[in-house]
Design goal:
Layout: E1 4-11, E2 22-23, E3 26-29, E4 33-34, H1 47-52, E5 62-66, H2 68-74, E6 89-92, E7 104-107, E8 111-118, H3 124-128, H4 132-136, E9 137-139, E10 145-147, E11 151-157, E12 159-161, E13 166-170
Parallel strand pairs: 5-6
Antiparallel strand pairs: 1-2, 1-6, 1-13, 3-4, 3-12, 5-11, 7-8, 7-13, 8-11, 9-10
InterPro entries: MoCF_Sase_C, MOSC_domain, Pyrv_Knase-like_insert_dom_sf
Organism: Streptomyces coeruleoprunus
Protein name: MOSC domain-containing protein
């Protein structure tokens, strides 16, 4: 996969549900997230995070998943389509999981998302399809946890995002910090 790719789908939901319906477009709002999405905001919006500390900054304003993951889980017998794992932007052609913290994703004409970390998948994935959690969270050769359910980011510059939009990756200066869960 290259450092550039495309948007294959966009999704949002104004209510707390696991899946998010696909849209013709979404509008990213600087410092907030996806307009009208339940997870948009300056402070944390994920229920588990609110319970811990509702004043934490929202490092999970936008959830992105690589479409290639759907083919990977399909090989294990699972059928997953864009938006069904709760992501806002489904990508094609980018190794999202290999990006460093601070990478910028320039999406479409105006939007810029700064990568903050990995999505930490929860048991809700098994409620969606039993056994799917084991497909998106595994272990490497050294026993370390490998999270494959996408990445999270914050909106640096707002703009309209549509399926088919180009995504250009801009890597940060200096030594790269690998992604960890946020």
């Amino acid at each position: 996969m290259s450092t550039n790719g495309t948007v294959s789908a966009v999704s949002s939901n104004g209510e707390y549900t696991f899946t998010k319906p696909n849209r013709d477009s979404v509008t990213l709002l600087a410092g907030l997230g996806v307009q009208g999405d339940v997870h948009a905001g300056v402070t944390v919006k994920h229920r588990s995070r609110i319970a811990q500390d509702p004043t934490q900054p929202n490092l999970r304003q936008v959830h992105l998943i690589h479409e290639e993951l759907f083919a990977e889980v399909a090989a294990a017998g699972f059928t997953v389509a864009p938006g069904q794992l709760g992501e806002n932007i489904t990508t094609r052609g980018i190794d999202l999981l290999g990006l460093p913290v601070g990478a910028l994703l320039r999406i479409g004409d105006d939007a810029v998302v700064e990568v903050t970390g990995l999505r930490n998948p929860c048991v809700q994935i098994d409620a969606f399809q039993d056994g799917l959690l084991k497909q998106v969270v595994g272990r490497d050769e050294d026993g370390g946890i490998v999270r494959k359910a996408g990445i999270m980011g914050i909106v640096r510059e707002g703009g309209l995002v549509r399926p088919g939009d180009a995504i250009e990756v801009e890597l940060p200066e200096g030594p790269h910090r690998p992604l960890d869960r946020v």
